[in-house]
Amino acid sequence: MPHTSALADKPAQARTYERTYRLRMEDVNPAMGVRLDAVARLLQNIAMDMIDESAWGATNPFWIVRRNVIDVLEPITWPGDVHVERWCEATSSRWVGMRQRLTGTPTATGFADADRPTGRVETSSFCINVTRDGRPSRIDDDVLADWNRDVTDVRYKWKAMAPATPDDIDGPPATRSFALRTTDFDAFGHMNNVAYWHAVDAALADRPTLTAQPHRAVIEYLRPITPREEATVVTKPYAGGLALWFVVDDQVTTAVTVTPLE
């Protein structure tokens, strides 16, 4: 069954890193709603900005995301800005949980007026500290001690939220190829986290009622996809929504679920 419990709220003692970004036309669908890939890009951007502008970025500059949880409580729409708050919610010696809150600020242009709901998206990221070549690495002791001032969970553990393989749930699978583009790969030589969402968005196109209500998207990156590999996407109905897997050489690389929020 999907995990539907609400993400933990921001504690009073949390120190937040905040930035406001301008939404662009390429971030939205024809209904002017911000897509999931745009949310993933915003999470990536604030993470990089936080690393660049924080003292701990000098000792722990490289991070990869193992999981993103995205709760679309109210869609953010374009045109406008989005304010992103980021804080640490849990720690361990090699990874941390980071919470992000996205709140829209509608603006008036020739496309729309400003009299629209602000929109709110709550997210959580499982982030692993790595070396330049992508190997998990211990977080600097001083950095960890500083973050531990704000959290109660200092033994943060991995627990999967998405079904690991298509065989784990019932239902008929739908399978199609997924074209890899040279522009999908990042500085680690892996398919960038944002690129996966294009396949998810395509699968959601046939399920407009799912995304018209509050919903949760979970993506778990199990192993990277690298250039010149051939990827297949497998989709199944799941808990009132869908489950989706990226498969390379008969091995699942990434598991995704999109389900209604209760």
Describe this structure in words.
- By secondary structure, the chain is of the alpha+beta class.
- It folds into 2 domains: 17-148, Hotdog Thioesterase (Thiol Ester Dehydrase, Chain A, Roll), CATH 3.10.129.10; 166-260, Hotdog Thioesterase (Thiol Ester Dehydrase, Chain A, Roll), CATH 3.10.129.10.
- Helix content is 15%, strand content 34%.
- It has 4 helices and 10 strands, in the order E-H-E-E-E-E-H-E-H-H-E-E-E-E.
- It has a 10-stranded antiparallel sheet with strand order 1-3-4-5-2-7-10-9-8-6.
- A hairpin with a 2-residue loop joins strand 8 (231-238) and strand 9.
- The chain is globular, with a radius of gyration of 18 Å.
- It starts with 16 loop residues before the first strand and ends with a strand.
- 32% of the residues are buried.
- Residues 16-104 form the Acyl-ACP thioesterase N-terminal hotdog domain.
- GO terms for molecular function: thiolester hydrolase activity.
- Residues 176-236 form the Acyl-ACP thioesterase-like C-terminal domain.
Characterize the quaternary organization of these chains.
single chain
Q: Please give the share of residues in helix.
A: 10-25%
Shape from CA axes?
A: globular
Q: Which CATH top level class of the largest domain fits?
A: Alpha Beta
Radius of gyration in whole Å, from Cα?
18 Å
Strand content of the residues, in percent?
25-35%
Structural class: alpha+beta
Question: What is the rounded distance between the termini?
Answer: 13 Å
Predict the CATH topology of the largest domain. Thiol Ester Dehydrase, Chain A
Structurally, the number of domains stands at: 2
Strand segment count: 10
The CATH architecture of the largest domain can be given as: Roll
> Element order, helices and strands?
EHEEEEHEHHEEEE
